[in-house]
DNA sequence: AAATACCCCAACCGCCGCATA
DNA sequence: CTATGCGGCGGTTGGGGTATT
């Protein structure tokens, strides 16, 4: 009773982690037909996933040009700079970081930078920082390329901090490279 | 050696805007 | 002009792994 997510083959929609098989199907299908309408792509490919799920998987993980892990200090700096300018416009920020996805940047921000800021600046009185939720989406919209006077607490203090190096020992899981090197 | 707490990443959900019928 | 569908975005959650006690 462990390795059976559902089993029900007739289940309409599959959820949860992607299997290597599903990844391969998706990669092969896109390699042959290209990206299209995701919903029909999912069906045509024989995947019991929603179009959204397929798109997310492809964009965030399977695409050949996607880089994962090891955010460099330069990238970190850029992220902080762009976030200072645009707030939580992750997709916008991601466009300036080739190979990085909005999801990854978002995760990076929340897990690393946000915490770092919190530690560096424990100001209880000020509603401080992490205009993460409310404010950002309201104040810095306006337009592409328009520099908004968005000033988070770390402004003026943009400098990368040392990041722990993740060891890539994915023995239990396949990596994207594995998938792409398959015949 | 075992248990607990913490951290990180992948994936899902809901909302919004745009395009097409 | 209105309704429907799709894609995209941001926020949130759950699971797995690692570190610490």
UniProtKB/TrEMBL annotation:
PROSITE patterns the record matches: HTH_MYB (PS51294), MYB_LIKE (PS50090)
Keyword Ligase: no
Location of the protein in the cell: Nucleus
A cellular component annotation (GO) from this entry: nucleus
Record-linked InterPro entries: EOBI/EOBII-like_plant (IPR044676), Homeodomain-like_sf (IPR009057), Myb_dom (IPR017930), SANT/Myb (IPR001005)
Pfam family, one: Myb_DNA-binding
GO molecular function, one term: DNA-binding transcription factor activity
Keywords: DNA-binding, Nucleus, Repeat, Transcription, Transcription regulation
Record-annotated Myb-like domain positions: 10-62, 63-113
Major subcellular site: nucleus
PANTHER family referenced in this protein's UniProt entry, alphabetically: MYB TRANSCRIPTION FACTOR-RELATED-RELATED, TRANSCRIPTION FACTOR MYB24
Name of protein: Uncharacterized protein
